[in-house]
Automatic annotation (TrEMBL):
Identification of the protein by name: Uncharacterized protein
Length: 1295
């Protein structure tokens, strides 16, 4: 079976026509983010967007009003590709630049800024610089050199922890002239405020950081997010626009935020504008073209004999002379005169008078309501016609077609389909129904059904040129996306037949032109557009498409703009022309002109959805002008970008020469001398015959002349021979070196450059030990297992090792299986990124893409599966490389950095010896992760991979000391108590899920298992690991060295003075703070380290047993499990606390202190097991309930229960939902508001609110109950509760 890569190509081409991308074709999980393409001009795609369903020479010929909204397709639920607002954000991108060049140039100017998927800071900025490990290392040089104030290095280092208090102290201590450091401290304090959801403070501190460092990307982005929270969309857009520009549109997060804000702004502005807009009639050409798409439409037929007075036949221009006083007939007369503005009023007269043509008038009025973009007014008229059982069935069917088109425009495809199907049921012989439904099917990608509908239409109406043309287009699209050359040719022949049989059908020429453009037959496509213009010289849309063709074909910007300007001259109501002109002006950097064009298009928009889209484009362009105005450096950078990109366009004529220059620079061999000069040129190796034959076979594959062939063989043989001699290596048959030279030969390099490039590629990009059973293949298997455990398990079961199918992939960088053009496109990206590890992710994507096909080969032989795998890259085409690269970067961002750090010596000079401990990856159970990465990854400031650490040591070891964020899963239970182990695993997974939802510091999508570090003790942990891998759990790793490595690392940190509070990484649940110990048990901690911030785990695990810890009762940083505890019930006999007589009530609201002694949980005070069950909706709707607050009740053990707080005038009720009885709940507690003595929140988790209830007496406050709730928008909730409590207390005092 054919691998699915070809299907990727199909979907991608489908995407170009419909502006959607289905990432499921790549076998990606739905939860994974999509990948914006590199910003580039997409005018060809823009052209296709306007013409995929209808011909460019006319308005919508099928889903009429669908196109009137500027052909907006159904917006997909998920997809990728470049959001069109980016066209307005990106200045100066060359209009016809191919995928490769601008992508490469963007990569070269942001090299290494995005390698790991983390947010990076642009070069040249004064913001934090990047360390080799990819983590931010703030510059402290200025502070260290400062002699006027003595500040401890370790103290400053601790201040970098994002807490507002430490950052405030750092700001106070930092000298004002140290702007870089000061801006960092402000940004870090803003991060702390962000965790507390103090958005105003975030904006203030980020503004301070930006003032000190105007191009501080992290501060700008954080301020943008805070401004969004404050609903300041305008300033948010300006900030995120600046971020996008500084990051060269490479960061997914900022792109998505910009897209989100632009859509929100667009919707808000469009809603207001559309509500107050003046309806505008389209151009006469548009209206005529629209009605011409119906062949069985009563209302569009001319007046018949008997509808006019015979004596007035010579006065057909006078609408007043039609028979009688029928408003409908007058409207029909106005249609013939193209006096469209009077039609709606005349139809209204007919309807109000209840005339004989009421049904026709309703349909005609609805049609013109739709034409002017007033769908709200049109729908009631259409509904009335459809429901008129005694009306002409042709009228009802036509109304259904138009309502179905309206639903499609409103993105309601199900309702649209229902209307078309109903029309087919009531009027089975109506060709219009099948014609228009066929075009609906094209929009829905149901091409086979579309072809069937067109066939039915043609059967009923053989002379329907439009249906014939549309059928050809459907067949062409089906063949084109299916990559079937023979069917493509059949469809093209069909177009030829249509224009031969229907030479007056402009639609046929237009659709044929689009197909020819897809096939890059630009000259003939241009001829077809000329035919359209000849047939319909006043159709503005044709000029726009012909103009876009000039841009794509000849890169003739002047001619393209001239044609689009001509379109506007012909029809000054052509919103498509204004939108396209605005898009082009953005490309040229004329943002003011672009904004003017977009505004004109906005005024012509016929739907609120289209208007919102245009506002987004306009706002994006405006935001960029504001950013450039405020930051002159950015404006200059953008201008230089435009000039650079224009120069790239100019060198496309000499692409081979340009690529050779670019590669030599990327490989660092530009200007290097002739390394072959010392060699005598003698070809005398023992394996020389083998070398010569392999070189001959390589050249035979290339289409070159005999003279060139001889020279090429000589060059390749010399390069390989000298490399073998200089490196003392023997050439063997399995080596892929000749393939590696194939892409280089296409660059026509002299022999010296050929060797230098070959040597550089071998040294930097071909991994060492690239032989059968070599280390790179074991590493690749671990990577495959990490991301696709099911696929890895399948191949392991078949005993198919990576080297059996991928040795040539890796040894030739895919040149062994890809044609030179594809390999060159791949290497363009690869060399510019300068990251040799990317090859492993390219290989991963190849398999991920073919996963479905591979898994379907269950019954096939091992040899056949290996052959299938090996040939997978051969289906790659140049246009696939961009997606391949984007996906590789995504998977790389989801992979621990330890993969490259632990294997950094895999690439480079082979003279460097491998360490013995690093050589054997074949015995690794899963991907190892270093302890430093685990500690760094889960800091609140870090992006990228975050780990959910699972400590698998026995309970005694865990209790004596463990990582403060680790979840305990006793591996001994797997054999000793399987049922308890199964429950523990379930709790673990639920805890992981809840930690992710709550944003806990311990949260992580990636599971990392930690053992003791002693092989004999970790046997059971390995069994646990195997259990998760067998369940095909992705993102499973192991902490290298286990807990011993953690201890050693923290001791080393202390010795180096990097973290004075290092011991607080490890906590104990069996006593006081644990000390670190070495492998032999000797204590390594120093005295005096008991102070500091007590671990959150210590505070929340006081009820844990010291031995045989029950894993169901773990709670780490509010990571909860779902084990069922003993539930509490409040009985009718419970006594509600009241203040002691004569003593004022005590009530306070504040942050919960680090040490809180009032740890009484009301759940432990139950005296009655009876439970009162109530209906949640009934209770929340009670008249005495003033506030309803959805929340989660948090028990002392860490369990959480979905609940509802109901606040009445005097009491607070907690209703706990019953999982097995939807809509019902237990009354969990009932507390008097005047018994609330304290409301507190966690500093690090402000959404966790603790209520303490008690009574006052002469001895003070006696706490009677403590209840905790996890409340979204806790600030608002506590505010209303406090207000109600104050009312109660005031009433008590006044009584």
């Amino acid at each position: 079976m054919q691998p699915r890569w070809r299907k990727l190509k199909k979907k991608k081409k489908k995407k170009k026509k419909k502006r959607t991308t289905n990432r499921k074709e790549l076998q990606l999980h739905a939860a994974r983010p999509r990948f914006p393409m590199i910003p580039r001009c997409d005018l060809a795609e823009h052209r296709k967007k306007k013409g995929v369903v209808h011909a460019v020479c006319s308005p919508p010929l099928s889903l009429g009003f669908w196109i009137m909204a500027a052909s907006k397709p159904v917006e997909p639920q998920s997809g990728s590709g470049l959001p069109r607002w980016q066209l307005a954000l990106l200045v100066g991108t060359p209009i016809v630049l191919g995928v490769g060049a601008v992508y490469l140039w963007n990569r070269s100017r942001t090299e290494k800024r995005k390698g790991t998927g983390e947010r990076k800071t642009p070069e040249g900025s004064a913001s934090p610089v990047q360390g080799q490990d990819g983590r931010e290392q703030e510059s402290m040089i200025g502070l260290k050199q400062q002699r006027t104030r003595v500040i401890s290095t370790s103290r400053l280092a601790s201040m970098r922890t994002p807490s507002s208090a430490t950052q405030t102290e750092a700001i106070a201590l930092c000298p004002t002239e140290q702007k870089s450091d000061l801006s960092t401290f402000y940004q870090n304090r803003a991060a702390a405020y962000e965790q507390q959801m103090k958005w105003t403070e975030v904006v203030q501190d980020c503004s301070q950081a930006v003032e000190l460092n105007p191009r501080y990307v992290k501060a700008l982005f954080r301020r943008a997010k805070a401004l969004e929270k404050l609903d300041n969309k305008k300033e948010c857009l300006e900030d995120v626009t600046a971020v996008c520009i500084l990051e060269a549109f490479q960061n997914q997060q900022s792109m998505l935020l910009a897209d989100k804000v632009l859509k929100q702004l667009g919707k808000e502005k469009a809603k207001e504008k559309y509500k107050n807009r003046e309806p505008m009639m389209p151009s006469p050409q548009f209206i005529k073209s629209y009605f011409s798409s119906f062949t069985d439409d009563i209302i569009s037929q001319p007046l018949q004999k008997g509808e006019k007075k015979d004596e007035d036949k010579d006065k057909e221009g006078e609408a007043s002379e039609v028979t009688g006083s029928s408003g409908y007939l007058k409207a029909k007369q106005y249609m013939e005169e193209e006096n469209y503005d009077k039609i709606i009023s005349e139809c209204t007269k007919e309807i109000e008078s209840g005339g004989r043509y009421t049904a026709e008038a309703l349909l005609l009025r609805a049609t013109f309501y739709l034409l002017i973009g007033n769908a709200t007014a049109a729908q009631p008229d259409l509904d009335r016609v459809i429901n008129m059982q005694d009306a002409n069935v042709k009228l009802r069917a036509n109304a259904l077609i138009k309502r179905g088109s309206m639903y499609m425009q409103q993105q309601q495809p199900l309702l649209s389909t229902q209307d078309f199907n109903m029309a087919a049921e009531i009027d089975t012989r109506n060709p219009d129904v099948y014609h228009h439904r066929g075009q609906l099917k094209i929009l829905l990608d149901q091409v086979d059904e579309a072809v069937g509908d067109f066939d039915e239409c043609i059967l009923l109406r053989p002379d329907s040129a439009l249906a014939q043309a549309q059928k050809c287009f459907a067949l062409y699209r089906q063949a084109y996306t299916g990559n079937n050359p023979s069917q493509v040719q059949t469809a093209m022949d069909g177009f030829e037949d249509v224009i031969r049989r229907f030479p007056k059908c402009a639609e046929g020429y237009a659709l044929y032109a689009q197909a020819l453009t897809d096939q890059q037959q630009f000259g003939k496509a241009d001829e077809m557009y000329d035919k359209c213009i000849e047939l319909e010289p006043d159709n503005a849309t044709t000029y726009v498409h012909k103009g876009l063709l000039q841009l794509q074909w000849k890169q003739d910007l002047d001619l393209g703009l001239e044609l689009i300007s001509k379109a506007i001259e012909i029809d000054n109501k052509c919103d498509f022309a204004y939108e396209t002109m605005g898009t082009i002006e953005v490309q040229r950097g004329n943002l003011d002109k672009a904004i003017e064009m977009f505004n004109k298009a906005i005024n012509l928009a016929k739907s609120e959805m289209e208007m919102a889209h245009l506002y987004s484009l306009c706002d994006a362009a405006y935001a960029q002008t504001e950013v450039a105005r405020k930051d002159q450096d950015l404006a200059e950078a953008l201008d230089s970008d435009m000039e650079m990109e224009k120069s790239i366009v100019q060198v496309q004529e000499h692409s081979a020469q340009h690529r050779a220059k670019m590669w030599k620079i990327a490989l660092n061999v530009s200007g290097k001398g002739d390394s072959l000069s010392p060699w005598d040129g003698v070809l005398d190796l023992p394996e020389q015959t083998l070398i010569h034959n392999r070189c001959q076979q390589l050249i035979d594959q290339l289409e070159v002349s005999e003279e060139e062939r001889s020279d090429m063989v000589s060059d390749v043989e010399s390069v390989i021979t000298f490399y073998c001699k200089s490196r003392n290596i023997s050439f063997t048959p399995e080596l892929s070196w000749p393939h590696l030279l194939k892409p280089l030969l296409g660059l026509q390099l002299p022999r010296s450059d050929l060797y230098n490039c070959f040597y550089a590629i071998m040294n930097k990009y071909i991994p060492r030990d690239c032989v059968p059973n070599g280390r790179p293949f074991h590493l690749y298997r671990l990577l495959l297992q990490y991301h696709e455990p099911e696929l890895c398990s399948f191949l392991d079961t078949k005993k198919i090792t990576p080297d059996s199918y991928a040795i040539n992939w890796l040894g030739s960088l895919f040149s062994s299986h890809c044609i030179p053009e594809v390999t060159q496109a791949l290497w363009d990206f690869y060399f510019q990124q300068a990251d040799p590890f990317l090859i492993f992710f390219f290989m991963l994507i190849i398999l991920v893409n073919a996963k479905e096909t591979i898994l379907s080969q269950e019954g096939d032989s091992k040899e056949n599966i290996i052959k299938l795998l090996e040939e997978s890259p051969s289906h790659l085409e140049s246009e696939d490389i961009e997606d391949l690269f984007s996906l590789a970067q995504y998977y790389q961002s989801k992979t621990p950095l330890s993969l490259r750090k632990m294997n950094h010596n895999l690439f480079g000079s082979s003279l460097v010896a491998l360490k013995e401990e690093d050589t054997d990856l074949s015995q690794a159970l899963c991907l190892p992760v270093s302890v430093p990465e685990i500690l760094q990854a889960n800091q609140l400031q870090q992006d990228g991979v975050r780990f959910f650490v699972v400590d698998c040591r026995p309970a005694e070891q865990y209790n004596s000391g463990h990582l403060s964020t680790a979840f305990h899963l006793d591996s001994d239970l797997m054999l000793q108590n399987p049922s308890e182990f199964a429950l523990s695993v379930k709790s673990l997974l639920e805890a992981q899920k809840q930690s992710l939802e709550s944003g806990s510091i311990a949260s992580g999508e990636h599971l990392c298992f930690m053992g003791s570090g002693r092989e004999e003790e970790d046997m059971y942990m390995n069994m646990v690991l195997a259990h998760f891998l067998q369940k095909n759990k992705e993102y499973v790793s192991i902490a290298k060295g286990g807990f011993m490595a953690l201890q050693k690392h923290l001791v080393d940190m202390n010795v180096e003075g990097l973290d004075s509070s290092y011991v607080h990484w490890i906590v104990s649940t069996s006593g006081s703070h644990s000390s670190l110990s070495s492998a032999d048990g000797e204590s390594l901690s120093s005295p005096g380290d008991s102070k500091g911030v007590k671990s959150l785990v210590n505070k929340m695990t006081f009820a844990l047993k010291s031995k045989s810890v029950n894993v169901k009762e773990k709670m780490i940083s509010f990571i909860e499990n779902t084990s069922t505890p003993v539930e509490r019930h409040v009985s009718s006999s419970d006594r509600v606390g009241k203040p002691y007589r004569g003593v004022k009530p005590v009530f306070s609201i504040g942050d919960e202190e680090e040490y809180d002694t009032d740890e009484i949980d009301s759940s432990s005070m139950s005296d009655d097991d009876r439970k009162e069950i109530v209906n949640i909706q009934t209770w929340t709707n009670k008249p005495d309930v003033k506030h309803h607050i959805p929340c989660n009740e948090v028990k002392e053990t860490g369990h959480m229960f979905p609940s509802h707080l109901l606040i009445t005038a005097t009491h607070m009720y907690c209703l706990r939902e019953i999982a097995s009885k939807k809509g019902f709940a237990y009354i969990q507690s009932r507390q008097a508001l005047n018994s609330v003595v304290k409301i507190t929140s966690k500093k690090k988790h402000p959404e966790l609110i603790t209520f303490k209830f008690g009574t006052n007496n002469s001895a003070g406050v006696e706490i009677s109950a403590v209840e905790r709730y996890l409340i979204p928008n806790a600030g608002d909730a506590t505010k209303v509760i406090k207000q109600q409590i104050m009312k109660v207390l005031d009433a008590l005092e006044s009584s």
